[in-house]
# Entry
Amino acid sequence: MPSKSAPITMDAVYTAPGYLFRRMQQIAVAIFVEECKAYDLTPVQYASLVSIRTHPGIDATRLSAVIAFDRSTLGSVIERLEAKAYIERKPSPGDKRTKLLYLTKCGAALLHDIIPSVERAQARMLQPLKPADRKTLLALLTQLVDLNNEASRVPLRAEDALEHLGKSG
Amino acid sequence: MPSKSAPITMDAVYTAPGYLFRRMQQIAVAIFVEECKAYDLTPVQYASLVSIRTHPGIDATRLSAVIAFDRSTLGSVIERLEAKAYIERKPSPGDKRTKLLYLTKCGAALLHDIIPSVERAQARMLQPLKPADRKTLLALLTQLVDLNNEASRVPLRAEDALEHLGKSG
DNA sequence: TCTCGATTGACAGCATACTTACAATATGGA
DNA sequence: TCCATATTGTAAGTATGCTGTCAATCGAGA
# Structure
């Protein structure tokens, strides 16, 4: 029975998974922003651009499902990307409510140019670990994120992206 | 069957460490908030309370170093904790600039009561993994966060907390 | 066809998380 | 002592990330 130490020490924080996930996310964003400084693009904006490129003509709601990103927040992200002329919003011919998203030439060029920086950032995040440990961590994290998908407020729904192609198939 | 895959697929996002860290952080916060719903306390507020309890009379700047939390953001966190009467701010006798932070009786009681919920939340985050994998993931993550400490905008400085006890040593 | 429930984008509001800037204060060296 | 420099809390501004709500619109069933 440790009588000298306080009933609750900082270990209750430092060793908690939630704290480590928060710290790691902070670090990951800091590294990403630093590597991509020249392009003034955030991780979320990058993920949005990649998704729109992969699914041209996707609407905002489906995009939010594809990157597991809150629908409300995504509105302002799209706004900023449109302001920077990286994407275009066009009214849907079939549905007056939705606006379809497309990459502009400028956005496609940016995406092409930024890839080396993004890859450098992703590599830097794991660099302190031994190569074998990097693989292990990524595998466990992929597994955990997948198995916990429904626990998040905005579960990933990758298959939603296909719906705008037609719902027959 | 859709057309051929685009030059950049969503894998560029889904398999990136940064994306996995962001997802896992989202999930962790969602689980924490859900488990602690009855107490209306966020993860950051919880970490702040534990730190103030461990280091009574700490000031805001040092607190930010102890939980690796941005100094500016911490201001509003402290404000909210004070508004809920969980902590008190008292002017420092020696330094007119700083305000010292103390847990109130109400705050101490809350901290005592919320612990089971917090532990349930932390357990739930890793629950989908096998016990051995949980240990591995935590160990690798702890290592990675520590080795990447300087990469974050607000590096953890746990030893800073001791300074308010006197700088003679 | 008409109406009810669901969907969509927009908005307001709260809580992190960061940047820069600023005034008040403290500290160390000339 | 005086002054340059540093620290502290605060604030404004930007960007996630979530909760609600709302009007417009759509779709399905009576």
Notes: The helical segments of chain B are 11-14, 17-35, 43-54, 60-66, 71-83, 105-126, 131-147.
